[in-house]
């Protein structure tokens, strides 16, 4: 476990999956990040896949490769390559285990850095191969709701910027695993830039907001707490909202996605997967998620 800190926050990052496990407000001694066996994860990294692929697999030039839900990075051991008091960088390099799922040469570097306003998570995807690198990248942090135990889940709101008249989501179907159906639905409980949270809105599962140029999502309560969490998602094309369905769980995941689960059906060629990003040979693509905390 790696610990970084400053005068305002402490963060713990597990080398297994480069997963943020705690993000502590030092002045009031509470954790913004979910920790409970009801959902035994905290903030997994999704790479090089997001969600389910048909038959948990995909094709490269017609050859079938298996791919776990959300890829393999979340279950891989990262190497710590740089560390200071308030920053740490971890690296996953392609190896024989990754090539069984994903026959490409890459480096995924993740850097966590604290400031007086919160936490930044920076991702570098480097293509060390000689062909196009096609991949999805997502971040899946789960925040405690209520924050610091103040209020109840239904007291909280999400302010989504910029304000849209209407936001759309991809309909999810369970086969029994969740896939996109190919249809579009309206984001529930949304009006004038604000989502009123309740557990019922998640009864069908995750809500993937269709690309609309969203810049930030703020989790807050108007009446019960002065604390808030604002996630800057401007480097990402989709934002997913999720909590464990049917559990009245006191957490909410705010997930920036560059990539999508498959529409239910046939296997897909990796280079043609909808929503995937592409990095050319020898180049590096960079993405950041900034989490402002109060």
Automatic annotation (TrEMBL):
GO MF annotation terms: carbohydrate binding; isomerase activity
Instruction: Share an example GO biological-process annotation for this protein.
Output: carbohydrate metabolic process
UniProt-listed InterPro entries = Aldose_1/G6P_1-epimerase, Gal_mutarotase_sf_dom, GH-type_carb-bd, LacX
Q: A Pfam family name for this chain?
A: Aldose_epim
CDD domains (UniProt xref):
Aldose_epim_lacX (cd09024)
Segment forming the signal sequence: none
Query: What protein am I looking at?
Result: Aldose 1-epimerase family protein
């Amino acid at each position: 476990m790696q610990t970084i800190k400053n005068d305002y926050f402490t963060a713990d990052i597990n080398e297994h999956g480069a997963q943020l496990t705690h993000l502590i407000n030092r002045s009031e001694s509470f954790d913004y990040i979910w920790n409970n066996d009801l959902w035994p994860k905290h903030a997994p990294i999704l790479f090089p896949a997001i969600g389910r692929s048909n038959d948990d697999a995909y094709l490269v030039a017609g050859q079938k490769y298996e791919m776990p839900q959300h890829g393999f990075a979340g279950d891989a051991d990262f190497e710590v390559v740089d560390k200071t008091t308030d920053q740490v960088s971890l690296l996953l390099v392609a190896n024989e285990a990754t090539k069984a799922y994903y026959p490409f040469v890459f480096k995924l570097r993740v850097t966590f850095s604290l400031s007086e306003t919160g936490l930044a998570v920076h991702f570098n995807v480097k293509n060390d191969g000689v062909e196009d690198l096609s991949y999805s990248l997502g971040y899946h942090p789960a925040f405690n709701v209520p924050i610091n135990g103040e209020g109840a889940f239904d007291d909280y709101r999400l302010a989504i910027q910029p304000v849209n008249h209407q936001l759309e989501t991809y309909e999810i179907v369970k086969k029994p695993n969740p896939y996109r159906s190919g249809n579009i639905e309206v984001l529930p409980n949304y009006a004038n830039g604000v989502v009123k949270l309740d557990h019922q809105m998640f009864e069908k599962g995750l809500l993937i907001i269709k690309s609309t140029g969203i810049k930030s999502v703020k989790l807050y309560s108007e009446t019960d707490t002065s604390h808030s969490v604002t996630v800057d998602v401007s480097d990402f094309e989709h934002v997913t909202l999720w909590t464990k369905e049917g559990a009245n769980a006191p957490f909410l995941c705010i997930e920036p996605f560059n990539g999508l689960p498959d529409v239910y059906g046939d296997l897909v060629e990796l280079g043609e997967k909808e929503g995937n990003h592409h990095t050319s040979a020898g180049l590096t693509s960079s993405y950041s998620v900034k989490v402002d905390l109060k």
